[in-house]
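Support reply, case 0932

Customer input (verbatim):
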Amino acid sequence: MAIVLVIGAGASRALVHTPLGTNLVWTYWQDSHPFADTPRYSKFLQLAEKLFPEFRGEANKFLSMQKECMIYFAPEERLRKCHYVDDMLRSLKGNSEEEGEKLLQQLILKHIVSVSNEHHRGYDQFKKHFLGMPNISVVALNFDTYLNEGPPGPKLDYRVHFDWIDPNRCNYSSGKGLPLLKLNGSLDWAVCSQGHLTLLNYSITERTFPGGRCHVQLCNNTIAPLLVTPHLEHDSVFAGLWKEAEEVLARAEKVVIIGYSFPHYDTRVIELFQRSLKGSIVVEVIDMKMCDELEEDARCRIQAKYQGLFPNLSTNQLTIHSEGLEKSLQRVCP
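Our regenerated output:
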């Protein structure tokens, strides 16, 4: 049976995930506090005020709360799709505002690194139950490297051509191993100004970029992280991944979705699944464990969402697991 595992990890709370949308930069301060830096985040809010007049006064509010030692929370009730950082970057790029673009890229990287530098047991459980099975492909929407951070574990193939690979990557296997399609890029992928793609070692910090150098012979240019948000101009790299993901999903007999909730702003992912999944597909959703009072409501909400997204998906084709990651994985993969 051809099985596709989709890792989003937002809902399971057992794997790490930094999605596009509001979680990048807007919630950076409370996620990073007290290690976040006031000057850069204050500049971000000033930039947001410049792009969106509806947030006028937000930077002053942030600074006053800092003086009173209060935690600042992003105005999430007012955030819309146009306020998400991927769209903000497009706007800045279109207006040739290089300083604002550079600031956003710095905060995005620091946010992703800060969230990713924690070990998450969910990946160990995930490897234990799934990654030794045949006919498995993984579609990942996360940026971190913990799925592939060395032994024990299977050989992984990112399905991307790298011009240089760190020799310490013992679990990477080009053209072989488990297909791992990271549709938004990965924290350990880098690109230089000459377009060379390199696969770095697992341990990435904010200091890795900038200052790192391309290891391709006779190049030595500075490298930058290859993430879909800061590097929209590298769509040629991601186009192949998205095309292969569509083909993999179209062949799948079962799709197991771990912690991905199809948020409304992720239109490209939603369209990918709507376009790819065949009518006979079996879908299993692994959700976080809830108390009995909330579990039925969560199941109804998830079922209604999937039926809205995939009208041809019958109730017999959809199974929702909410016993916690370990028990849910045991049910999906006995």
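We compared this against your earlier run and they match. Two observations from our side: The CA atoms of residues 105 and 230 lie 6 Å apart. DSSP finds ten helices and eleven strands in the chain. Please reopen the case if you see a mismatch on your end.
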